[in-house]
Amino acid sequence: MTVAIEMGQTTAGGSATLDLEELLATRLLVQGNSGSGKSHLLRRLLEQSAPWVQQAIIDPEGDFVTLAEPFGHLVINAEDHTERGLQVAGERARIHRVSTVLNLEGLDAENQMRRAAAFLGGMFDTARDHWYPMLVVVDEAQLFAPAVAGEVSDEARKLSLGAMTNLMCRGRKRGLAGVIATQRLAKLAKNVAAEASNFLMGRTFLDIDMARAADLLGMERRQADAFRDLERGQFMALGPALSRRPLALRIGPTDTHPRNATPRLMPLPEAALQDARAIILAEPPPETVMRPQRRSAPDLLSQLMAAKSAALEVRPEPVEQPLSAEELTARRERLDRILRAILAEPDAGFRAIGVLYQEFVVRCRIEGLVASVPDMTDFRRMLTHARAGLTTEDMADDDGWQDVSIRAGMLPEDMQGVFMMIARAAKEGWPCPGDAAIARAYGTHSLRRARRLLTYIEEQGLIVCQFDGTGRRTVTLVELAWATAPGDPNAAEEMPAEDACDAPSV
C-alpha cells in the first residue's frame, strides 16, 4: 500500500507529496537556518502522517506538545521522570503503539541528552514481536548528535550519540524511521547524517553549509548560492520518498501551532525614567534560607525501631478464591456495560486509547471491580469488539466470530474495530455502514480517511466492496460469504435498534 503525504506545493504549482512507506525505509534529514521553517515542516509531516503511523517526537523546546489534543499524542514531561522511567516508557510506547511527545523543555543540555538517550534506548531495545513501523522525529538533532565535544560530560555525549546512531543506522530493521532536523550540517555527527536517503534543504547562508547541501542534493557548486534565496517555508527536496531530481517546494499550512509564536514588534511602554529606576533598582527581597530541622536522638531511635519492626512484620497474602461460572458471566456483563457507557459518550470515538482506559479503570473501581480490571492488552481487545457492538458472550457463543477475529488480526490494531463492525453488519444483514460511522470507529473526523481505510482492507484481501447503480455500497467478507445489505456511503451515522438503548450511568 502506498500512502502519499501531501507536504505542500512545488514552485510549478503542482502537489508535492511524500511516500510514507518509502520514508519508513529510507529516513529523512531536514536542514535550514533558524527561522527557515524546519519546525513547521516537521509539524506538517506529523499531522499528515498521524492517522497512518505511530510517532515519537524528541522535542527540546516543547513546540510539539500542541499535537496532543487533536491527534492523541501522549506528552511525557522528561523533567518529571528518571532515566530508567523514560527507558521503560519508550519500551511501553512501542508495545502499545501510542504516539508520544518527549518534552525536554526546562532541562539543561546534559539532562536533555541523557533523558533522550534513555527514551530512544527503550524504543530501540523492544522485543522483536513489537517492531511496529514508527516515525521518530528529532528536532534540533545537533543537540543530541553533536559533531564535536561541547560543555556536557563525555558520558552524556556518548549515551546520546550512541542512541542517535542506533536510530539512524540500525533502526530500520526494528521499524524505526528517523526524521532528524538540524540548523547546520557541520554541527551534526557525520555518521548520523550519512544514513538519511531523503533530504529537505532550507535557507542557509554559510558557504560550508551551502556546499554540503549542494553535494547531498547532487547539485553543482555554482548552484549552491540558490540556498540563500529560499524564503521561509521553501525547501529543496531530493530522495526516493520525495523526488528523483532536486525539486523546489513550499510547505503547506498546518492545523496546529507551536506554543511559542514568532516574536512580533510591539511599542515600548510609556514610563518615566524615574519610575523605571525605582522599579529596576529597588531593594531585592530578603533571601530565605531553609535550615534542616534538628531532631533529638530519642526521636531518631524511635523512628528507626518503628521502621525495623514494620519491615520484620510478615503479612499473609490474601488467597484469591476462584470464581464460579455464574460469577464470571456476571463480571463479563458488568465490564461490557461499563465499556458501552464509555463509548456512548459523544467524543469517545475520537479520544486516545490511554484516556479511555483511564476512565474505564475509574468506572471499574466505582463498581467494585478493582481486582478484576483488565490490563491494557485485554482492554484493547474488548474495545475493538465493543466498537463493533459485540459483547464477550457473542464472541464466545458463535464460532464464526473466531474466524473473524483471526482475520482482523491481520490488520493493525486501530483498523480491527472497523473490520469487526463491518463483519457484524454483514452477519446480521444490515446496510453497509456509511463513511461517517467508519470514520468514528477509526477515531477520525475525516471521511476521506474512512474511504482510504476501506480500500486498504480490500487490498489485504479481506473484503470486496461493490456499488450498485444508485451508488449504494455492499461489502462482502472473503471466504465467509457474509455480505451487508446495500448502504448509502453518505448516510448519517446510525446505531442498530437493539444497540441504541442507553447504558446505565456509573
Descriptive report:
This protein is of the alpha/beta class and 506 residues long. The protein has two domains: 4-251, Rossmann fold; 325-499, no CATH class. Helix content is 41%, strand content 14%. The chain contains 18 helices and 13 strands. It has helices spanning 20-26, 38-49, 68-71, 83-96, 109-124, 154-170, 190-193, 207-216, 273-280, 297-312, 325-343, 353-366, 376-387, 392-397, 399-408, 413-428, 435-442, 447-459, and strands spanning 4-10, 15-19, 28-31, 54-59, 74-77, 100-103, 134-138, 176-182, 198-201, 234-239, 243-251, 463-467, 473-477. The strands form two sheets. It has an eleven-stranded mixed beta sheet with strand order 2-1-11-10-9-3-8-7-4-6-5. A two-stranded antiparallel sheet has the order 12-13. α17 packs across α18 (447-459). The longest helix has 19 residues, at 325-343. The radius of gyration is 28 Å and the shape is globular. 35% of the residues are buried. Mean pLDDT is 82; it is low at 495-506.
Question: Which characteristics define this entry?
Answer:
506 residues, alpha/beta, Rossmann fold, 2 domains, eleven-stranded mixed sheet, two-stranded antiparallel sheet, 18 helices, 13 strands, globular, disordered C terminus, ATPase_Atu1862_pred
